[in-house]
């Protein structure tokens, strides 16, 4: 979430999604737990990572049948916060 693959294969920032990622980190730093962050995001209709991915695919003209999570879970928030890519770690071929 917050990135897409650019035409050259490099990660490219998706501005609106990047704002959501920053919000999640800000809430966590402010003392919110995973469940409280998930409730906050769901209450404000912020798209889940699967919703965001589906929107990107539909905008490219792809039809997708992947399951889309309708609301945030504490596991989604934990996974996003634990992903070291968001703190600048870039791994090749992963």
Describe this structure in words.
The chain has 94 residues and is mostly helical. The protein is built from 4 helices and 2 strands; from the N terminus they run E-E-H-H-H-H. The chain has helices at residues 15-29, 34-43, 49-59, 74-82, and strands spanning 3-5, 11-13. The chain has a two-stranded antiparallel ribbon with strand order 1-2. A hairpin with a 5-residue loop joins strand 1 and strand 2 (11-13). Helix 2 packs across helix 4. The longest helix has 15 residues, at 15-29. The radius of gyration is 14 Å and the shape is globular.
Quick one: how many beta strands? Answer: 2
| Percentage of residues in strands | 5-15%
Overall pLDDT, averaged? Answer: 86
Large-scale geometry:
globular
Structural class: mainly alpha
Tally of helical runs: 4
Helix content: 40-55%
User: Compute the gyration radius: what is it?
Assistant: 14 Å
| Poorly predicted ranges | none
Task: For the structure shown, list the relevant keywords.
94 residues; mainly alpha; two-stranded antiparallel ribbon; 4 helices; 2 strands; 6% strand; globular
